[in-house]
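> call design_seq(struct)
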């Protein structure tokens, strides 16, 4: 895949910050194999999710690129997305380490902060992502999450520095949130 550099953008006259929505997905889910590729109303779950992400990103007033970070072994399962209108940028990384894959995707695209969205969060709300980005930047956070999000609507924002620390300290962790919460107290619960 071709690496596309993301321009630095200004958000509400604040210090310029590069955000990117990084959707972590894999075809080999252990509990529900192929979950991201299963269909709802004739369309794969991952395509529904990417559509929602694009409503928060490139098509909104706040430019936020959408990146699909997948294990290198799953490359063939997601190539068909490149022909869709909601085609993301792609990043293939560590097969068994979602935290390393997330960190590497952020580094590869030069992001200051990653908006982490799991492949089954099809109900994310574009307005909340924009509000969260503004809050993250205004408060100069390392980690933003919400315990109040509706099921299937969750996401979190993680700074480049927090991702670097967590991925150096923790290997092959499935629950990225726990690793991030263990390395920073500069966090905020968006309510």
């Amino acid at each position: 895949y071709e690496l596309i550099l993301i321009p630095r953008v200004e958000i509400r006259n604040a210090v310029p910050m590069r955000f990117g929505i990084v959707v972590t997905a894999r075809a080999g889910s252990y509990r529900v194999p192929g979950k991201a590729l299963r269909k709802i109303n004739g369309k794969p779950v991952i395509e529904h999710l990417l559509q929602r992400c694009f409503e928060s990103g490139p098509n909104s007033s706040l430019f936020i690129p959408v990146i699909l970070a997948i294990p290198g072994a799953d490359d063939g399962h997601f190539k068909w997305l490149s022909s869709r209108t909601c085609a993301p940028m792609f990043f293939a990384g560590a097969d068994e380490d979602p935290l390393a894959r997330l960190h590497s995707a952020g580094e590869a695209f030069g992001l200051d902060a990653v908006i982490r969205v799991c492949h089954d969060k099809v109900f994310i709300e574009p307005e909340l992502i924009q509000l969260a980005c503004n809050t993250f930047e205004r408060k100069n956070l390392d980690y933003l999450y919400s315990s109040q999000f509706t099921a299937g609507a969750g996401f979190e924002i993680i700074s480049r520095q927090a991702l670097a620390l967590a991925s150096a300290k923790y290997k092959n962790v499935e629950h990225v949130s726990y690793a991030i919460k263990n390395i920073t107290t500069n966090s905020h619960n968006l309510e």
